[in-house]
């Protein structure tokens, strides 16, 4: 019985997510992976998913850069207090896909369009 009581105590620490269909449609979901050495098979990471939202007229709170000769678009800065920071996006992460649209091998301009929801 003590174990059940312990579980109830941690219930308040659990983050709750309430799905809002409008936010799910209007805001891209990112698929990303940590930066790794392509020649080191032990450094490969599984992609993780981040659900980001943004307020009208604001950004998601991260900045991208593209490195020549590297796949994906690297997160070079995450703004404090933004959806990107709250969802665990980190500098060095690579954006692989947005809403099931793979952008890993796309030009930078295409990736930005997809992230902006213009396509």
UniProtKB/TrEMBL annotation:
SUPFAM superfamilies: PDZ domain-like
PROSITE patterns xref list: PDZ
Stored Pfam families: PDZ
Repeat is among the record's keywords: yes
This protein's record includes keyword DNA damage: no
Protein name, entry field: PDZD3 isoform 9
SMART domains associated with the record: PDZ (SM00228)
Stored InterPro entries: NHER, PDZ, PDZ_sf
Species the sequence originates in: Pan troglodytes (Chimpanzee)
Residue intervals of the PDZ domain: 49-113
Annotated keywords: Repeat
């Amino acid at each position: 019985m003590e174990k059940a009581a312990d579980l109830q105590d941690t219930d308040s620490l659990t983050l709750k997510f309430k799905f809002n269909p409008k936010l799910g449609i209007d805001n891209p979901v990112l698929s990303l992976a940590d930066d790794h050495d392509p020649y080191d098979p032990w450094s490969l990471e599984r992609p993780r998913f981040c659900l980001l939202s943004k307020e009208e007229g604001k950004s998601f709170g991260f900045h991208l850069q593209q490195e020549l000769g590297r796949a994906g678009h690297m997160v070079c800065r995450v703004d404090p207090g933004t959806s990107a920071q709250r969802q665990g996006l980190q500098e060095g992460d690579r954006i692989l896909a947005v809403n099931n649209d793979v952008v890993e091998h796309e030009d930078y301009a295409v990736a930005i369009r997809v992230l902006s929801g213009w396509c």
